[in-house]
Amino acid sequence: MRILTGLQPSGKLHLGNYFSAIRKMLEYQSNNELFLFIANLHSLTTLKDPNLQKSNTYNAVLDLLALGIDPNKTVFWVQSDVPEVTEVTWYLSMAITTSQLSLAHSFKDKTAKGFTPSAGLFNYPILMAADILSYQADKVPVGKDQKQHLEFARDIASRFNSEFGDIFKIPEPDIDENTATVPGVDGAKMSKSYGNTINFFDSEKELKKSVMSIVSDSAGIDEAKDPDSSVIFSIYSLFLNKEEKENLKNRFRTPGLRYGDVKKELLEKVLEHFSIYRAKREELISQPELISDILASGKTKAKSAIMPTLERLRTKLGLLI
Ligand code: ADP
Ligand code: TRP
Fold first, then answer.
1. How far is CA 33 from the centre of its chain?
2. Distance 66 CA to ligand 2 centre (A)
3. Backbone phi, then psi, for 33, in 5-degree steps?
4. From the CB of 192, is ligand 1 less than 6 Å away?
5. pTM of whole model > 0.90?
6. Burial class, 28, CB count within 10 angstroms (exposed 0-12 / middle 13-18 / buried 19+)
C-alpha cells in the first residue's frame, strides 16, 4: 500500500507533532511504501520571507532524517524539486469549481487570520490533490484540519475517472480521530500558532525554559494533586508505559509532591528520549553533501513515480499531437 503525506515547513517540530504525526510515519515506513515530502510550494501561500522559506525547508529535512526517516525505505523529497506536480495542478483545476473551493475552511481560517486571500491560497487544495493523485496514493495520513482537502482530492479523482477512464486511485484519508491532543505549556492544544510548544530540537536551555513554564494549579506541597487535570501529568505521560503512568498518578495523589521537581524529571525525560535524535541531527548538519545526495535521489524517485500519470493525463487531455 502506498502511503503519502506532506509536511509544510512552517516552523520547529514539537511534542504534539512527534507523538501523533511523526511516530505514525515511522511506523508506516517500516510496514508500507511511504512517500513523504516537504510541502514548500504550499508554504509559499503563507510564508513570505525567502530566507525563512529556505531555512525552514532545510531544517524540516534535517529533523525528519534525524528522527529516523530512512531515504532507503521512504521516497523523501522536497515538493518543488518535482515541478511536474504543478502541471498536474493545472489539469485538476478544470475538475473543481470556484464555488466548491470557496467552501474551504482552511482558506476562510487563514484569511481570517490576516493572510492575503491570494489565488494561490484559494487554489491550495488543488495543489494538494495533485500531490496525492499524481503519486497514486492509497492512503493519506493527515490531521483533522485536512479532512476537507482530502474530500476535494477524492471528488476531483472521481470526476476525472468518470470522464477519462481510470486515471487516478481514489485515496483513503487516514485521520486518527482518537489520537489524544497533546496540550501545550499553557494547557491549550500544543500548536506553533499559539506559541505554547515544547520543541524537542531546541537547545537544552530553551527546552528547560519551556518545560519549566508548564502551567500548574495552586495546590500546595502538602496537598494531594489531581493528575487528571494536570498539564504536567498529560505531557509526562507521553513518555511513560502503563505501569509508570500509574506510579506517577499515585505520586500526584500523595501529598508532598512538588511540581517543580516533576518538571525537572520531565525535562530529563525529554532530553533522554530525544538525545539520540539530537545527536543524529548534529551529525547531519555537518554533512551537507549527504543531505544533497539524499534529496537528489528522492527527487529522482519521485519524478519517476509521477511521470506515468502525467503522460497519461497529457494524452487523455489531447495535449500530445
Ligand atoms: P501546528 O498546530 O503546530 O501548526 P501542524 O498543523 O503543522 O501543527 O500539525 C502537523 C501534524 O501534527 C498534524 O498531523 C497534526 O494533527 C499533528 N499535531 C499538531 N499539534 C498537535 C497536538 N497538540 N496534539 C496532537 N497532534 C498534533
Ligand atoms: N496541507 C497539508 C498540511 O498543511 C500539507 C500537505 C500538502 C499534504 N500536500 C499534501 C498532506 C498531500 C497530505 C498529502 O498539513
1. 18
2. 21
3. -95, 115
4. yes
5. yes
6. buried
Strands 139-141, 75-78: pairing is: unpaired
**Domain ranges, ordered by start, for the chain:** 2-180+288-316, 200-283
CATH fold for domain 2-180+288-316: Rossmann fold (3.40.50)
Residue nearest to atom 20 of ligand 1 (CA): 16
Fold for the domain defined by 200-283: Tyrosyl-Transfer RNA Synthetase (1.10.240)
Q: Is 128 in the pocket of ligand 2 (CB under 6 A)?
A: yes
Report the distance separating Cα 286 and Cα 65, nearest Å: 13
**Contact partners, residue 167, CB within 8 Å, separation at least 6:** 157, 160, 161, 309, 312, 313, 316
Can you give the three-state secondary structure of 102-146, one letter per residue? CCCHHHHHHHHCCCCCCHHHHHHHHHHHHHHHHCCCCEEECCHHH
Per-residue pLDDT, 207: 97
Bridge pairing between strands 2-7 and 172-174: unpaired
Question: CB of 25 closer than 6 A to ligand 2?
Answer: no
Ligand 1 pocket test, candidate residues 17, 105, 109, most atoms within 8 A of CB? 17
56-110: per-residue pLDDT in tens? 999 999 999 999 999 999 999 999 999 999 999 999 999 999 999 999 999 999 9
pLDDT tens by residue, 261-284:
999 999 999 999 999 999 999 999
Nearest CA residue ID for atom 12, ligand 1: 17
Ligand 2 pocket residue status of 123, Cβ below 6 Å: no
Summarised one tens digit per residue, pLDDT across range 161-219 is 999 999 999 999 999 877 778 999 999 999 988 999 999 999 999 999 999 999 999 99
Ligand 1 pocket, 181 CB below 6 A? Answer: yes
